[in-house]
Design goal:
disordered N terminus; two-stranded antiparallel sheet; single chain; 353 residues
């Protein structure tokens, strides 16, 4: 039953059912259209995504000619599923879709320039960050407006029951940093076949559980503050997971298509915004610990090299460091997935303590 046409009840049962339907809808759309989409991208992109010349030498040959912008497959399938099964009168759904589509647009512009100019250098960092911060501010404004006043600027401390800090207006720049930081951290992790897609699937699944609990009557049974209307986000998350799994079918090594900035920025921005809406920004750093480590490794490498002309890691981000140590690409991806799953479980344990 389409919620946009048949009422707006947000009970635990209806959200659960619509979430399942959104998942399978996105999964089926992604799997059914994936091959034709990849063929279309190959026809229009020619040489495919330019490979970083300063990256692992093995990538220059094995990944050469692979098309990019595979994130479109995730975004399109999850968007259709969300519009079909989510309660479209819910303001949180629209605030999340806004950030999802704007960040996808920024990533698409970046990918388009790379492909059209056959260069790994596209939109300048400052310009991209400016657009990302502006988009995050719009989404935060909508979320804050529809969040209860006593919870609007609250920062939840996980694992410590009832530890909540009111950041007042300092919360806005903090939340902007969380969204933009998450988007670019996910973007940095998108360097190996299946890595970013798998880690995003795990992180979204964890936050699907969190928002489902926080937004329904079952929140009283867990160590989490109830949030009005937040449970509906579960439907969107389910759709995104379905889209990610469909994409992974084609992105598994050796990848037939890359996610590109189109997908990584959109998924990262959406994940960060969900954490902001759920008031679980710190928990995001635990569940998405791999993303944090990827970003930190890149920052440390650049900072230390500029000061000393020496490298801390053999190559950054850190997944390339392990490749340089001799790990196979599939080994790095699988082990990072395992660590990501452990981090997600550790994060979810905070709901029961």
């Amino acid at each position: 039953m389409l919620t946009s046409l048949f009422g707006s009840a947000e009970t635990a049962e209806t959200i659960y059912i619509r979430g399942l339907m959104a998942f399978f809808t996105a999964l089926i759309i992604g799997l059914a259209s994936g091959s034709k989409f990849i063929t279309l991208m190959k026809q229009h992109q020619g040489k495919g995504q330019p490979i970083r010349e300063d990256g692992p030498k093995s990538h220059l040959e094995t990944k050469k000619g692979t098309p990019t912008m595979g994130g479109i497959l995730i975004i399109a399938s999850s968007l259709i599923a969300t519009l079909l099964w989510a309660n479209l009168s819910n303001p949180f759904i629209w605030s999340l879709l806004i950030i999802y589509l704007i960040y996808a647009g920024i990533g698409f512009a970046d990918d388009y320039v790379k492909v059209s100019k056959n260069s790994s250098n596209a939109i300048t960092g400052p310009h991209r960050l400016m657009m990302e911060f502006a988009a995050s501010l719009v989404s935060i404004a909508i979320i804050s407006y529809f969040t209860a006043e006593e919870q609007r600027f609250a920062l939840t401390i996980p694992y410590f029951k009832d530890w909540i800090i009111n950041l007042s207006w300092f919360y806005v720049p903090f939340a902007m940093f969380v969204i933009v930081g998450t988007a670019n951290s996910v973007n940095l992790s998108d360097g190996l076949d299946g890595l970013a897609g798998g880690l995003c699937t795990i992180a979204f699944a964890a936050f699907g559980i969190i928002v489902y609990i926080a937004g329904t009557a079952v929140s009283s049974e867990f160590n989490i503050a109830p949030l009005t209307d937040i449970g509906e986000i579960t439907v969107l998350i389910s759709a995104v997971i379905g889209g990610c799994i469909a994409f992974l079918w084609f992105n598994a090594a050796p990848a037939k298509i890359f996610m590109g900035d189109t997908g990584s920025l959109a998924l990262g921005g959406l994940l960060g915004t969900i954490a902001v809406a759920a008031k679980q920004e710190i928990l995001l750093a635990i569940i998405g610990a791999i993303f944090v480590i990827e970003a930190l490794s890149d920052i440390i490498q650049v900072f230390w090299y500029k000061r000393t002309k020496r490298r801390v890691f053999l190559m950054a981000p850190i997944h390339h460091h392990f490749e340089q140590l001799g790990w196979k690409e599939t080994t790095v991806v699988t082990r990072f997935w395992i660590i990501g799953l452990i981090c997600a479980i550790l994060g979810l344990l905070s709901l029961t303590l």
